[in-house]
Structures are given as structure tokens and as C-alpha cells.
Specification:
Blueprint lengths: L7 H32 L11 H24 L11 H26 L8 H4 L1 H12 L5 H7 L9 H18 L5 H17 L14 H18 L4 H6 L32 H14 L1 H15 E4 L2 E4 L12 E3 L3 E4 L2 E2 H5 L1 H7 L3 H15 L8 H6 L8 H10 L17 H31 L3 E2 L3 H20 L3 H10 L7 E2 H9 L5
Antiparallel strand pairs: 1-2, 3-4, 4-5, 6-7
């Protein structure tokens, strides 16, 4: 068909075919190339922070800045109740994960300036400022204020106060100044004192809800703040191991429990989603204990199954919850816990187990569907689109930027899990199928086009252009879901009627 014979209907049809080819390349073939490239990064095996973390971070920084500023101005957080977890917790802890990752990337850059032409704290300064503002925003503390009342900054509330200390410490290490120093110092002193005076060294996150590994994270945050504030809580940190000894550990695994009674000393079982968290932070405060915990974590929760490796959410011999989901564990698939595996990358790296970190990290990369613009599509999809759409990517950045306290033991001769090859094959298969289907559909249309009548062709073409252009604009502006939805709606055009039916209709007598 030459350019002279192009019609509005054919423009729509050829345009739709081009879009399907582009989508196949962008969402399936390009990720294969990126996955292979990322897997070749020596940082995955322990030679520093992976270089691809800088690429993802540079892409995420302007998006995170824009989102965080809009989130604060919107005031959405003030209207949320305590009955929702993701909309209340995720914006804050996602921002803290983002700040922690920034701090680690900056430290790596200071040791090796070939990692980036510009320092992370320079090109991401706006997003660092915005993330810290969100963490310190009183509106984003509305849910813990409902739990604890107006004294929420000085009564237990471990999870939120840990996030305050951790996020603001990273902010000051990156940008300096004294903007949040008074708040930070107050939280370090009051939380450490309250933990030290508690019955078992444990406090609640929410009333009657104590999660011990959040306490471990809080202790690590206090230690990190010491190096900034010039304070010394080393004796407190030594004493605080009391909350993670003896009867306060799961008797089967020797690991901290998922849940405990802060005043009763009663404990629940250990779980994957909590122990990836505890072993990550214990490596900074109690290295020897952390090594034991990680060894037990691997012993009781690491599994090889269906060509994949990773951490289970529940014990190896517990097959009751092979398929499960909650807000902490994420999806549990054939025993593998999404949270346990995604954050398990960070736990393995922090504990100098780059053999596990390489295999698990390779699977996470392959499953994340990396896109050319730096987006990790699966992580974006699993985040909360309405309230915390970048949390998944911030969390993965956190995991891939963990490093051990001592010299890394580089993983040698560690094979890729078969699941990685299967996922690569799946991308190629779906991409190739999409290309073939688009081409075959076009050829079929070309053969039958003469048998169809297209009414209002120009109006259909205008509508098609509006859908395509609007969809592209939304996708570029980080509303990927709605952008793709409009582009897919455009595939319904052009609409037509069979010529034979049109001819019959035209022979009917007119009513007079």
C-alpha cells in the first residue's frame, strides 16, 4: 500500500501494529538485554555496590522528588485511619529506604568516583530533601498519632521512631545542616532510654503489637546516629542484646520471633519476612550474633525448589502456608516469600554471604522486569499505586546497596539458578508471540480490508491520535498503568461494518 492510498483507517491499523511491535521490544526484548547486562555486574558477587544501582537511582531520583512533594501537599496522609497498612506505613518507610540507599551510594562514590560523573547527593539533592520532608511531616504521622495520642514521639511507637532516626540520620550525612537535628537528637535519646528501661528490652510498634526485629533496626539506627551526633550509646547497644536471647528466641530456629509480648515475654514463631530484616541490622550492632542468626536463617528457611532458590516465609517442614499473602510477607509462592527474598538480598550482602546474595539477586533482577528508562516494572506494580508507587524500587535499591562491615568475601563459581533462564525464556517467548500475532493480524486485515466499510474515518483517526498521545504523555509522566490503558483502548480502532451488510442496508426503501 503506497502513501497515496493511505486512509485514516489504514493509518490507525498500521499505527497499532507499530505500537504492538514497540511494546514487545520495550517490555520483553529490552528487559532481556538489561537483565543479562545487570547479571554481569561484579558488584552482585561482592565487588562493591552494583553499578546498575546507580543507573536505577538516577532514574528514580527526579520521580521520587516529584512524588514526595506532591504527596505532602496533597494532605492524603492526614485522612487515613489505622485500619490500612500500605497507605500509612509505605510512604514513610519507602522514603527511609530511599534515603538509606542514597547514603550507601554516596559512600561508594566517594571511594570510586568512576561509578558516576556526579555525586549521588548532588544529582539527587532535591529528592533527598523531599524524602526527608515526608519522613518528618506530621501529617504522615497521623496514623501513629491515632494509635499513641499526642505523645506519639515519646511513647513506644518503635517502628515509626526508628524510621525517623534512620531517615533523618541519612539526610544529615548527605546534605548536612541543622534542619532536623533537634528532632533527631530527641528521638535518639528518648527511644534509647525507653528501650533500656523496658522489662525485656522490647517495646511495641503499635499498642500490644511488638515486632522484635523492628527493635533491632531501631538499635542499629541509634548507633548510626551516634556517628553523626557525636553521642555514645555503645553500652546501651551491648545491653540491648537481652531482648534477643534465651526464651525471647524461637526455640526451634534460635531466631527472633515475628511477634512478641513486650511486657509478657511471650513469643511467636520466626518468619522469613522478619528475619531478613533482623539479620540485616544485627550485622551492624552485634556481628557475631548476626552471623549465627544468618546461619540459622539459611538452615531453616533457605530452599531450592522448581529450579529456584531463596528464603521461605515459613519453616521448611511447614507446608500449610505454601501459598499465602499478607502485608508483611507479600505473596508467598510455593513457599518462597516475596519479602523474605527481596530483602534477603540485603541480609545476605550485609552478612557477607555473597554466594546467596548473587543467586537471590539474579532472580530478583530477572523477576523485576527492568525497563530502558530505569523502571523496575514488577517492583512498581507491587507497590501501592495510590499512596506509595515507588516504594518497591526504593526497597530493592536498599537491598542491593547493603555491604558487610568487614572486607567482602567475593562469591566464586556460583551458578545461576535455572529459574533465571526460565524467566529470560519467558520474556523472549511472550515478546516473540506478541510480534508474530501483530504481524499476522496486520496481514489478515490487509486481505480483508476491501470487504469492510469504515464510517467516520477522520473522527476515528482523531480519537485514535488523542488516545495514543494522551497515553504516551501519561506513561512518560510516570502514570504507566493509565498510559498503557489508553494505548490499549486505541487498539479497538478503527471500527468497521461488513460491506455486504452496508449494501443491503442501502437498498431498503426510505420511509415517507
Amino acid at each position: 500500500m503506497t502513501a497515496k492510498t493511505l486512509t485514516p483507517a489504514s493509518i490507525c491499523k498500521y499505527g497499532n501494529t507499530f505500537i504492538w511491535l514497540f511494546l514487545a521490544v520495550y517490555f520483553f526484548f529490552t528487559p532481556v538485554i538489561l537483565i543479562i547486562y545487570y547479571l554481569s555486574d561484579p558488584g552482585l558477587k561482592g565487588r562493591g555496590i552494583p553499578r546498575f544501582a546507580f543507573r536505577i537511582h538516577k532514574s528514580l531520583a527526579p520521580r521520587y522528588e516529584k512524588w514526595a512533594i506532591h504527596r505532602i501537599k496533597s494532605g492524603k496522609a492526614k485522612d487515613l485511619g489505622t485500619d490500612v497498612i500500605a497507605p500509612t506505613e509505605w510512604p514513610v518507610f519507602g522514603s527511609v529506604f530511599y534515603l538509606w540507599a542514597n547514603e550507601s551510594l554516596q559512600q561508594a562514590w566517594e571511594q570510586d568516583k568512576t561509578l558516576s560523573k556526579v555525586a549521588p547527593k548532588v544529582y539527587a539533592a532535591g529528592s533527598i530533601e523531599a524524602a526527608a520532608a515526608l519522613v518528618a511531616d506530621p501529617g504522615h504521622a497521623s496514623w501513629v498519632r491515632q494509635h499513641w495520642g499526642d505523645d506519639y514521639l515519646h511513647e513506644e511507637n518503635v517502628f515509626y521512631r526508628m524510621l525517623l532516626i534512620g531517615g533523618l540520620t541519612s539526610y544529615h550525612k548527605l546534605l548536612g545542616g541543622d534542619k532536623y537535628l533537634d528532632l533527631l537528637r530527641d528521638q535518639v535519646e528518648t527511644l534509647s532510654k525507653e528501650l533500656d528501661e523496658s522489662k525485656y528490652g522490647l517495646l511495641d510498634d503499635y499498642p500490644n503489637q511488638c515486632f522484635p526485629t523492628d527493635v533491632a533496626a531501631a538499635i542499629a539506627a541509634i548507633k548510626r546516629a551516634d556517628s553523626l551526633l557525636g553521642t555514645d550509646h555503645s553500652e546501651f547497644i551491648k545491653r540491648s542484646i537481652r531482648g534477643f536471647e534465651g526464651n525471647l528466641l524461637d526455640p526451634t530456629t534460635g531466631l527472633p520471633p515475628y511477634f512478641a509480648g513486650a511486657t509478657s515475654g511471650n513469643i511467636d514463631i520466626a518468619r522469613g519476612c522478619s528475619n531478613q530484616w533482623g539479620t540485616t541490622w544485627a550485622a551492624e550492632v552485634w556481628p557475631e550474633t548476626a552471623n549465627k542468626w544468618y546461619a540459622n536463617f539459611e538452615k531453616y528457611f533457605w530452599q531450592r525448589r522448581f529450579g529456584a532458590v531463596g528464603f521461605r516465609e515459613f519453616l521448611k517442614d511447614d507446608y500449610a502456608d505454601e501459598w499465602y499473602i499478607d502485608v508483611d510477607s507479600g505473596p508467598v509462592i510455593a513457599g518462597f516469600g516475596a519479602s523474605a527474598c527481596a530483602f534477603g538480598v540485603g541480609a545476605a550482602r550485609a552478612n557477607n554471604r555473597f554466594d546467596n546474595a548473587y543467586q537471590l539477586g539474579a532472580e530478583v533482577i530477572a523477576a523485576s522486569a527492568p525497563l530502558p528508562d530505569g523502571t523496575l516494572l514488577t517492583a512498581r506494580y507491587l507497590s501501592n499505586a495510590a499512596h506509595a508507587k515507588f516504594t518497591g524500587e526504593a526497597c530493592l535499591l536498599f537491598s542491593f546497596t547493603r555491604m558487610p562491615q568487614d572486607k567482602p568475601i567475593v562469591a566464586q563459581n556460583v551458578p545461576l539458578p535455572a529459574a533465571v533462564y526460565w524467566m529470560l525464556g519467558l520474556y523472549i517467548f511472550v515478546g516473540a508471540t506478541t510480534v508474530m500475532a501483530a504481524i499476522l493480524a496486520l496481514r489478515k486485515w490487509e486481505k480483508t480490508a476491501s470487504k469492510k466499510v469504515y464510517r467516520f474515518q477522520r473522527a476515528q483517526l482523531i480519537l485514535w491520535c488523542i488516545l495514543i498521545i494522551t497515553g504516551i504523555v501519561l506513561a512518560v509522566r510516570n502514570d504507566l498503568f493509565y498510559g498503557l490503558l489508553l494505548i490499549l483502548l486505541a487498539q479497538l480502532l478503527p471500527r468497521f461494518a461488513k460491506k455486504e451488510r452496508a449494501q443491503v442496508t442501502s437498498t431498503l426503501p426510505n420511509k415517507t
